[in-house]
Amino acid sequence: MAILSILFYCFIAIAIIQILYYIGFLSFFSFQKPEKGKAYDIAISVIICAKNEAENLKQNLPKILEQDYRNFEVVLINDSSWDDTLEVMEEFAEKHDNINLVNVKSIEPFWGNKKYALTLGIKAAKNEFLIFTDADCMPASKQWLKQISAHFSNEKSVILGYGAYKKVKYSLLNKLIRFETLMTAIQYFSYAKLGLPYMGVGRNLAYRKEQFFNNGGYMNHMSIKSGDDDLFINEVATKSNTALCYTKDSFTISEPKKTFKDWIIQKRRHVSTANHYKFSHKLLLGIFYFSQLLFWVLAAILLSFLFQWQIVLGIIAFRIILQFVVIGTSANKLEENDVIILAPFLEIFLIIFQLVIFSANLISKPKHWK
After folding, report:
1. What are phi and psi of 102, to 5 degrees?
2. Does 271 map to a domain?
3. This prediction's pTM
4. How far apart are the C-alpha atoms of 227 and 218, rounded to whole Å?
5. Is residue 212 part of a domain?
6. Confidence of residue 108 (pLDDT cuts 50, 70, 90)
């Protein structure tokens, strides 16, 4: 019983940490209204790096070319594709004079490195203001460029947007993917609101070309296959130079993975970069994840022995209610309401999968971006 008493008090401490995170960190995004930018009609370069994305380009590129924005180019980067990607890009370039095509051929030192291809595309961009998305993404509206670019100013040189995933009915995997995406967005938006920006997603991200070259591009992490978005933002984003854009017209929508295997491979690449974040970011994110894990592990142990079960259930209920309020408010902003009813179950699934992914990355590292 002495061991159970110790575990019970540990559970209380972990629950307090979780409650503090929800109230002190995640709520900073949940209860904030979107900031309105000012339309400057600045010249924009949209950067899209594609590797074997012929079909996605056929479907999504027209949505970008149809943007209600007067002055923009689209920089299409073919990263050594072996499908018809280059041919598709050339067909679009023949019909649209605002397409800037960059064909990247692999060289041995940078083989399979998206950052090398992106660097060449950024150098080729004609404009100072860059907006990034992926070939498998489409804008949620024709106002996407207007919404994102309106947040650039003399002070703001980094813009963090939201990259949603398409909804698939009756799919547990789809809900898990979108719940993970929602939780990630709530965290990086909340931390940015607190003046601690630590990442962005390449599906919907913007920054000035000057910012890129002043930082030396991706040179500090060129050898790491992922991180063209989050590691770069982790280096350059500050409280004063970062703005958030999460109006519904500013979203991008991507095709989600259709199998658990493909999703885990994708997440392994993404997670592999977290170890290179600044120490303060790693500490805060690590405490949140491990307190989530310990909360449910300790709760399961205590309930299995019926030790102080009324108090344990009461704490679980309070935390779930708090989660529904904080995460639910954010989900409403980001149009992910349908995952909230399953949030406690999706959280447990996500904790397990993240543990599997962390363990797999300790054994071997992902090697290529595609």
Report:
1. -125, 115
2. no
3. 0.91
4. 9
5. yes
6. very low
